[in-house]
Each structure stands twice: as structure tokens, then as C-alpha cells.
Amino acid sequence: MSDAEESPExxxxxxxxxxxxxxxxxIRRWEERMPDVPLHAFMSDDESQLSVLRDGSADLSFVRLPxxxxxxxxxxxxxxxxxxxxxxxxxxxxFEDLAFEDVSEExxxxxxxxxxxxxxxxxxxxxxxxxxMPMPVARHLNNKQTVSRRLSGVPGTQIGLAWLAxxxxxxxxxxxxxxxxxxxxxxxxxSAQQEKPKKAPKPDRRGTSSAGKKPAVxxxxxxxxxxxxGRGSRKKGKR
Length: 239
Hints:
Oligomer: single chain
CATH topology of the largest domain: D-Maltodextrin-Binding Protein, domain 2
Distance between the termini: 99 Å
């Protein structure tokens, strides 16, 4: 058997994330707590956000909900702010945020029918209509020919963390805990549950008597021969 076959595989963790998710803070926390376990991250689109789990490309995936949860564990994380996106110069640019009733008469395009967010923004830039999408996605794509504003009064979207059911390795559990905000000292973190080496007992510095008795306590000061004698007794001895 070769050395490569004898040595265990080095643990690592791979995760995917859809556009609009910014995983930097979780990556930094992982590198602080688990510096010996490599962490690999890559972006996926909404169509492949689950397939990366099923084909083994990723151990976990930050997904945009809802998704088909069959065979998966999914943790909802946070809700995304929605945005309305219009061609540059559109009248929505004079507002900071809008309610859907303010733009309900506009011609809205379907992002999925346009071939995804990136293509949809190109169609919007041509003046064909407006789209509604998560604000983080619009900011990530950053099409200079469009303008986006926060939009209320429409159903929101939510980001979640997904992984295959049954795939609950310690490194996956560690990452889930980091994403959920658990501290490094949390009893639910696998890294905190590892047995810490016991400290060796301090050596007995008092020594041991030859008869096997309790070690004698050394005197800090030498006995004073004059202790207990009165001042008069010392004078009496002088002639």
C-alpha cells in the first residue's frame, strides 16, 4: 500500500452561493477558527444552486428560496430587500424608495422569461420595461444603463443554506454554526467539543522525608536564641 493510500484525506469544505450573497464574513471567521481546513467558495446561478450539491461540486449551498427540499436540509437565514429596476433616466431615479402602487401601471418583465437577472437588466436598459428583483442582485450585476430603487409591497425573497440530508460531517456542522452566529466557545460547535489535553500536576516542591512521612515544611527564618529572654537577663550576664 502506498503512502497516499495509508494517509487519510485532508478535510476540506466547499460551498456555493448565488449572486447577491456576500460570504466574506463567514469565510473570515472560518479561517480564524479552522486554519488547517481549506475552504473553497464559488458562485452559482439560481438554476444550478441545488445541482452543485447533488453532483458533489459543493458540500453546502447558499440558495434563494423557495427550493425543492427533497433530500436536503435547508436553514432559512435572512430576507432580501426587493428593488424595482428601470432604464437609466427613468422617473423612479428621483425617489429613494417606492411602493409597488407607485409603479403598478408600468410594464413589468419576468426575469425568468428574460433568461435570468443579467439578461433581464440588458432588456430593461433597452427601454422594454421594468423588472423586480432582489436589491443585492441588482447591485451585484451593477448595470450602468439601469437604475434601481428599494421597493415595498411585493413578496420578498429569502436566502437559505442547504446541504444533502445525511451529510453531517464535523466540518459541515462547524460551518453551519459559524453561519448561525455561534461563538467559538459554544458547546454546539464541534471544534469546542474536542477533548483538551489535561494539564500535568504541579511537582511537589517541598521534598519527601526518608521515613516516608509527610514532607517537612522548611523554616523561613532561623530560630532566634534570644527570643523569650527579658532585657534584664541579658544585662545580668555582663559584669
